[in-house]
Design brief:
Blueprint lengths: L7 H33 L2 H44 L14
Helix pairs in contact: 1-2
């Protein structure tokens, strides 16, 4: 597969961004669970939910780093593709026409 056909960096970036959104949504949900459990006086549940929210937020930070790294790979891939095109030489193909 040639560079211009390789959409891997783009696809990975999109997938990572979706995963990042889900991680952030889950971190928010666990923060809400923590608040609810705390309001109900369920301290053990609140502590566990808080720890989960924190872990998810940290995972989201790492996922954001992965997105940034993928953006760089995508840019480098696009630059390499453009560089290849700078060196393409045009050429012609002779066509034979039968003479009658």
């Amino acid at each position: 597969m040639s560079n211009h056909e390789d959409r891997t960096p783009l696809l990975l970036k999109v997938a990572l961004r979706q995963a990042l959104r889900r991680l952030r949504d889950e971190a928010d949900a666990f923060s809400q669970f923590e608040a609810l459990a705390g309001n109900l006086g369920w301290e053990d549940v609140a502590e566990s939910a808080a720890a989960t929210a924190k872990a998810l937020a940290e995972a989201a930070e790492r996922a954001a780093d992965a997105v940034e790294a993928t953006v760089k790979v995508q840019a480098e891939s696009a630059h390499a593709h453009d560089h290849e095109h700078d060196h393409v030489h045009s050429h012609t193909h002779p066509h034979e026409h039968p003479h009658e």
